[in-house]
């Protein structure tokens, strides 16, 4: 049996841009992708902490060190620059692999710098 498990998470990223006229997707600084194990073209879920919107899209790699979090295309209607979002990737694992799997969770500050990396999120984690 396989289960879909969280593999990476960028927690409380600040949206830097929203580009309605772009073809689609989310642009993310390559440094953040590397830290969380996410890859260009990977499907991700984006959760907007400001308005509760949830969407799925795919990743485009942004310039390293740019701190870019840009929602493109139709997704730009669901966010505003300055909104806080959570970006989550998932992967399928065999059930026995799930027992030892640890996702890569990046906690960000207001400027999209990584302030902490976590392998698991204890219950009642607040940031």
Written account of the structure:
9% of the residues lie in helices and 48% in strands. With 127 residues, it is mainly beta. The chain has a 9-stranded mixed β-sheet with strand order 2-6-3-5-4-7-1-8-9. β8 and β9 form a beta hairpin. The longest helix is centred in the first third of the chain and has 7 residues, at 30-36. The chain is globular. The termini are far apart. The model has no long low-confidence stretch (mean pLDDT 94).
Mean pLDDT: 94
Q: Point out poorly predicted stretches.
A: none
Structural class by sheet pairing and helices: mainly beta
The Cα radius of gyration reads 14 Å
For the sheet with most strands, the description reads: 9 strands, mixed
Percent of residues in helices: under 10%
What sequence of helices (H) and strands (E) makes up the elements? EEEHEEEEHEE
Spatial strand order of the main sheet: 2-6-3-5-4-7-1-8-9
The termini sit apart by: 34 Å
Q: Given the C-alpha coordinates, what overall shape results?
A: globular
Count of helices?
A: 2
Could you give the count of β-strands?
A: 9
- The percentage of residues in β strands lies in over 45%
């Amino acid at each position: 049996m396989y289960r879909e498990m969280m593999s990476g998470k960028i927690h409380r990223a600040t949206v830097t841009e929203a580009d309605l006229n772009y073809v689609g997707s989310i642009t993310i600084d390559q440094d953040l992708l590397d830290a969380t194990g996410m890859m260009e073209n990977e499907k991700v879920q984006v959760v907007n902490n400001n308005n509760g919107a949830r969407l799925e899209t795919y990743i485009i790699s942004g310039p390293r060190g740019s701190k870019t979090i840009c929602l493109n295309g139709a997704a730009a209607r669901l966010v505003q620059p300055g909104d806080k979002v959570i970006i989550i990737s998932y992967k399928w694992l065999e059930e026995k692999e799930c027992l030892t799997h640890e996702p890569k969770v990046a906690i960000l500050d207001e400027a999209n710098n990584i302030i902490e990396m976590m392998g698991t999120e204890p219950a009642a984690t607040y940031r």
